Each structure stands twice: as structure tokens, then as C-alpha cells.
Amino acid sequence: MVRLITHNMLACHVRNCNKDNFPLIFSEVELVIRETPENLDFIRRFLPKLDWTALVDTARSLGDTTLPDEQPVEMTDDQLRALHHVLMEMHVEEGNMTCRGCGHVYPISNGIPNMLLAEHEVGR
């Protein structure tokens, strides 16, 4: 499943694509919300690994506006719960992820992104 926790770490790896290759832009998505047991300690520990701006922009593109523009220095439990929802419960089942830099489209089918590249697209 493409969850936003995973999406926040994906970039385009097409040969010579090194500008505007993160974050990949979702389009034509089928979004499913699946409740997941909260683990706020995990969310708290994962915070330093997030690109906050990319996460907020992506969440908003999918219709979730619960995250603030700027990452709070100290997050409340309610803010951590909102972050848990965005990272762990929002699943993109179908659709596409497109690179803004080169336009390469990574299709998502049955919740699985196809990140494989053709031989001529592979960076060296």
C-alpha cells in the first residue's frame, strides 16, 4: 500500500532526473482510509525523517488539511494523532505518482507502486 509515510521517502530515479524529483505528485488516486492502532511514540521518533513541507502539500492534495504549514517544535498528542492519520491511515490504492522534473509516471495498482524503470531510464 502506498501510505504517505512511504511516499515521503520516494523520489524519481530516472537517469539525469535530479531537479524537482521529490516529492512525486499523486494523480487519479483512489484513496482509502484504514484505521491503524496508534503508536504515538513511533510517530514522535519518525518526525526527524520527514520532509514536512512535502508531507503537508501531499496530504492537502489528497484532501486532508489537518497538518499545520510549519512543523511544531513540540507536538501535542492531538497533533501527533493527526500526523498518525496522515502517515499511517491514508492509503493510495490506485493512481499515479508523477515526477515534476522529468514527467515520468509511476503507476499504482492494488496499492503497489511500480517503481521499476526501463533499461534506458536507469541512472548510472
Largest sheet: 5 strands, antiparallel
Q: Using DSSP, what is the number of strands?
A: 5
Assign the CATH topology.
N-terminal domain of TfIIb
Distance between the termini: 28 Å
Q: Write down the domain tally.
A: 1
Overall mean pLDDT stands at: 95
Protein name: Trm112p-domain-containing protein
GO molecular function, one term: protein heterodimerization activity
Subunit structure: Interacts with TRM9.
Family: Belongs to the TRM112 family.
Short description:
It comes from Naematelia encephala. This protein has 4 helices and 5 strands; from the N terminus they run βαβαααβββ.
Question: How is this structure best described in words?
Answer:
The chain has 124 residues and is α+β, with helices and mostly antiparallel strands. It has a single domain (2-112), classed as N-terminal domain of TfIIb (Single Sheet). Helices cover 27% and strands 22% of the residues. It has 4 helices and 5 strands. It has helices at 4-7, 40-46, 52-61, 77-89; strands spanning 2-3, 25-33, 90-98, 105-109, 112-113. Strands 1, 2, 3, 4 and 5 form a 5-stranded antiparallel β-sheet that branches. It starts with a strand and ends in an 11-residue tail after the last strand.
